[in-house]
Amino acid sequence: MRVVMFGYQTWGHRTLQALLDSEHDVVLVVTHPKSEHAYEKIWSDSVAELAEEHGVPVLLRNRPDDDELFERLKEVDPDIIVANNWRTWIPPRIFRLPRHGTLNVHDALLPKYAGFSPLIWALINGEPEVGVTAHMMNDELDAGDIVRQEAVPVGPTDTATDLFHKTVDLISPVTIGALGLIAAGQTEFTKQDRSQASFFHKRSIEDSRIDWTWPAEDLERLVRAQSEPYPSTYTFHKGKRLEILAAVVSQGRYGGTPGRVFYREGDGVAIVAGADARTGRNHGLAITRVRTEDGREMGATEYFTSMGGYLTSHP
Asked: What region holds the Formyl transferase C-terminal domain (predicted)?
């Protein structure tokens, strides 16, 4: 089939590579200009450079809603558009233009985790598995019929980076497998159960701020979700920003006020956590490694020279 590819960052790069390695003919690539957004500088393999290396024409767009792009698409006459990690709305006159419509590839197990940063949100929420879904695009974001979907388990110590590597390897089989079904003439696919749908926003630095009223189990997953190369979770100690680089759920249960620097436990320092911490039934978050405001990394037991005081959400 003649394919136009819309994509960005490493997800788009992997999708384009899969298409180039397949029997399909990539006739045009549309991608975004480089961005300085903290999350868009991560996993930033260039779709444009890969296309140019293979002699595929490239158009740069922030939004694909101009007449020039529409006319160019009509000229190249695609059988299908394949999109992965396209960051803005694609209007109906674009996604309906090809003979077979538009196949969107999304790094989540739809209908859950539509929208942005699905791996990070899924890890924070303790999902047992994550995956990749190829679905037909319709008027509602990430809501079209599912053509192919594959899942991988989330391990007990997995970080968002681990989940990225697990799921990015699914892009090729999911995309090419879905195109094979479409090329073979299949037109009926699995409808999404919209009662199970959830939609998440883009993450920002604000979303890495620790709220000590969260249960320790949730905070431990947040730290793993925001591990390198993502912006680290952070809190404030004595008015200064303190990044939490590694932590585990404490063995002991600690009662009192959320955020209290309480007790050395092994290689960590236990912080009281949970909205109902006053009951004494909660585990704490045992911080093991931190980064100070001036960029120094150290073990928590080295940083916290004495117990007492509080970690806070604001200076």
From this structure: 206-306
